[in-house]
Amino acid sequence: MEFKELDDMPLNSFLIFMTLLVGLGSFLDGYDLLNVSIALPFLIKTMNMTAPVQGLLGTATYLGGVFGAFLFGIFSDLRGRRSALIVDLFFFFIASILSAFIHTPFQLLVLRFAIGFGIGADIVSGPALLSEMLPKSKRGEMLGISLLMMPFGGLVSVLVAYALYASGVSAFIIWRLIFAFGAVPALLVILLRSWLTESPRWLAMFGDPKKHAKEFSIFSIKVQSSAKESYSELFSKYKRGFVYSSLAWFTAGTTSMLTIFTPLILEKFATKSYVQMIDLTLIVWLFALSGAVVAALLHDYAGRKRLVVISVALLGVFYVLLGASLSKNAYVLELFLSLAMFFSFINVSGAYTIQTEVFPTELKGFADGLTFSINRITNFVFGSLIPILLVSELLKKFMWFSGLLVIIIAAILATIGIETKNKSLERIQEELVQHNSVNWQS
Description:
Layout: H1 4-7, H2 13-47, H3 51-79, H4 81-87, H5 89-98, H6 105-131, H7 139-166, H8 171-180, H9 183-192, H10 200-206, H11 213-219, H12 239-253, H13 256-259, H14 262-269, H15 274-298, H16 304-325, H17 330-354, H18 361-392, H19 395-416, H20 425-439
């Protein structure tokens, strides 16, 4: 079934509003990514945590994200994208409030897992809804704008921590407030999302014309009666798209050693005070925001594939340079950290966009959940090692290994990826199936 009118529709205020509502979920992801790293110095002091526990605490949300992405991916296929997006952030909201009242690292680990569950669910369901209603000429740009809310959320987290620290709040209280404040934007997003409209492509396949009469009227939708793909098709007809999306998300997952543990790296190699660490972290995340902005502007001009391949290759280069700069000039370390974050968020924006384009509607939630789970598993593995590597003085070698691995994957992405800009979702999927049958079966 084609959606030509939808694909060729000009961008309007309704679609911009939908983009912002979905993007607020990315904002919460960014806020949470950094609030735990900003709170870690205080948690270490008040709870005497070992390096392995620090790694687990910093990355527990990623484990939760694996389960949230997988389960809510299926939920969004069966019950709709809108339903998933309204429900998923309750996990974030409740766990953020409870985090202010915990007394042991284990309690916090459980709550961090719950927060990650909600975030994983949101990043699967949100972009799926957006991609299925945006015009093809603006799909990359608007998905990129939705994603750039993530580094913006990180910046807000840094500013909240700075304000609390400057106010003289004790170490025992400050980390509790940093976590609890995450509930405020979460509640706002939950309330605003009552305005969300269901995906027109999902409605055409699974929607009830009586239950969704408003949406059927807005989009002039007709129920699709053609045969639907089964989940088993993901690993046969759509395996090329699955590998392409999975590798893009894998490379983005390696950046958890920067997004979560930049403050600890800076604290060890570049600065001695908490205020200086906050200032330097703010600079690093401004580069992250700049990378996301560049990606949003270029998705529909340079193309997703080109941006991902180039950004992944350069991310690998700066991992190698970052490893070489450890224990040397603090300004050089800060520069390489900032540039690595810049290219990492171009990579993340590309992966975020590609995952929504290479799978058909009936498989999209399930497939996106699997590929994004690969990202979260990688996030967990790479991130949880950083505190241990800092103590054992092996971080330099790990950075070099990561850089070489990422550069190799960039070459693979250049080989197997297809360009998706300015194409309807149905056309992208047809090309992937044709390409798959020609090149993968031989």
